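Case study 2.
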Amino acid sequence: MRILYSHRIQSRDGMSVHLDSLVAALRAEGHEVLVVGPSAYEEAGFGGESRLTALVRRLLPRFAAELAELAYSFPAYLRLARAAHAFRPEAIYERYNLFFLSGALLARRLKLPFLVEVNAPLAEERARFGGLALGALARWTERFVWRAADRALPVTEVLAGHLRAAGVAPERILVVPNGIDLAEFPDPAPPAPKPAVTLGFVGFVREWHGLDAVVRAIAGFQGDMPLELLVVGEGPARPGLEALAAELGIADRVRFTGLAGREAIPGLVAGFDIALQPASVAYASPLKVFEYMAAGRAIVAPDQPNIREVLRDGETALLFDPAAPGAMWAAVERLARDPALRARLGAAARAEVVARDLTWAGNARRVAALFQAERERRARP
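Prediction:
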């Protein structure tokens, strides 16, 4: 099948991992995929973003920047239409973005099957954090794209609820969570003897992750083996965490790798004894959870609906009440003192990935099947 993939991503981060991984998996399944998006995406390095976009957001009043986002749909539509004329796609797949109408409009004009991947309710998200001036317009464009899709693909059932509330018919919604490429994560080897138990975190480090509490708890831990923290990533919370570790006298046990390329992640996660997901947005499908599962790590994560869609407490992870002070650390301490439990949970987490096919290849097969079903539906008299 020839699939035209439309997006508006301009940075290289978790969003780009999802995009690149799904496209690679679709191609590996034998489909032709043409990706059409901003030129800045191809030029950006991992962790970087478009300087022009950052400048526009800084200089323009918020309402003007949002109108510019909406106006971008016009040149994006022309670029997408030119690509479609040359490529002659049989279907259009789009990663949803706020104020971005190009794929929906072109699919309607060409009468092509249209799938929309939804990773967040962006109108609600931006309004909540004070970053939205034209709320009514944003919500209208969001509903327009979601309802235009033949199938909408939210990454969690929690997010699917947002789509249903926006008027998307339940039968047109299929939850497709993030995934992983198991080929990048070899079967976990037995842990090598180490002088400390390593707690690990992958991602962009923000204050709300609560890693400061982890650093304090490491300093006060009394166990057979000391604990250390390895943070794979970068973020605004890093300087404060490093200063806190120095103040507590454990600077040598709190390490940051800085930004790490995708090829380095499996090897770094393999060094974790306990993998941390300290907090999660309520509707997200955290990519790091799938990395931890594929690596066969013992996971500590918040007990909330979107996380329970993937992990089961006591079976594939230890889940903690995010509203209970000290609950996360109690789970960490339990695992730190019980290597057999760590091994059991890690093995079960990896087995869950295999059993449920929580992979990019599996997602590619689901997407292709949806496109095929829509083509057959349209072909019926």
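The chain has two domains: 2-179+359-379, 182-356.
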